[in-house]
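Sync notes, pocket subgroup
Present: LS, DG
LS reminded everyone that the earlier model was apo-only. Rerun requested with GNR included. Inputs:
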Amino acid sequence: MKRPILIHPDPRLKKVAAPVADLSDDLRKLGDDMLETMYDAPGIGLAGPQVGVLQRVLVMDCVKDDGPPNPFVMFNPEIIAASDDTNIYEEGCLSIPEQYGEVERPAEVEVRWIDRDGNSREDVFAGLWATCVQHEIDHLDGKLFIDYLSPMKRQMITRKMQKLKRERARA
Ligand code: GNR
Ligand code: NI
């Protein structure tokens, strides 16, 4: 089942999400719903707060269009190591449609998380995967990619989003 994606500005996108306590069928269903919502958008990642769930869950799949899908569902993800070298990507966000900005982040990160079977896992992510998982974990901490841009660019984007939300509310 697809879930509606919240659009910035929304107070729920600024909150720190709570750790997941125990894996339940509801949480597994949430992961499935988030993957369906992400693929449908389409996007390469999605975090709980973006669908109004203030729990530490994210999904991602950064495989190129022609590759086989490689979906991840992560509960309580944590960055346990980050490289000194960085990458700059032009980032976008499903909660900030059609707005983009360059963000510099560590090029490689090691992440620990609980998978949908309840097992603890660790892996190193690089390239777009590294950028994506950091963007998603930021969502769990109430942070958006526009928080890395200049105040002027951020304000410009926020005003555009306020206008978009007004228009959608009237339609
Ligand atoms: O679909 C998405 N694309 C993207 C591109 C560059 C850097 C990060 C992303 S994540 C984004 C989906 C999203 O908003 N996830 O929170
Ligand atoms: Ni996002």
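DG: Strands lie at 45-47, 57-60, 72-82, 86-93, 96-106, 108-114, 120-126.
LS: The chain has a mean pLDDT of 97.
Action: DG to write up.
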